[in-house]
Amino acid sequence: MTAEPDEPLAQVPVRELRRLRALARIASQQELADAAEAARIEELDALEACGRTAELSDQEVRRMLGISALRGDEKYVTTDEVRRRLGLPQSR
Question: Where do the structural domains in the chain lie, given as residue ranges?
Fold first, then answer.
């Protein structure tokens, strides 16, 4: 796995890196999907906590939410789409 462009890198102890690699090898596909979803939500939470969500481009939000390229005549990710992807109640 490689870092995304402009993504900060983290240093972790080698023992922790080996543990994480081992967990990834033995995890089921569902567990890996759940972990990826949790990581996306954690990333958005961290950005929101430091007040940076307004700076995100549509492309960055799509990457974090695991949404592919634009669909049909869609131009932007809607609030309802973000809420649906995060499993949050829809706005009224």
Answer: 14-85
The most distant pair of C-alpha atoms in the chain lies apart, rounded to whole Å, by 48
Q: What is the pLDDT along the chain (92 residues), one digit of tens a residue?
A: 566 666 778 899 999 999 999 999 999 999 999 998 888 888 878 877 887 777 777 777 777 777 766 666 666 667 677 777 777 776 55
H-type alpha helices, 1-91: 14-26, 29-49, 58-65, 79-85
User: In this structure, are residues 28 and 22 in contact, taking their beta carbons and an 8 Å threshold?
Assistant: no
Q: Which of 15, 91, 66 is nearest to 78 (CA)?
A: 91
Neighbours of 67 (CB within 10 A): 17
Tokens for 70? 């634009």
Task: Give the distance from CA 7 to its chain's centroid.
Answer: 12
pTM (two decimals): 0.57
Structure tokens at 5: 């462009």
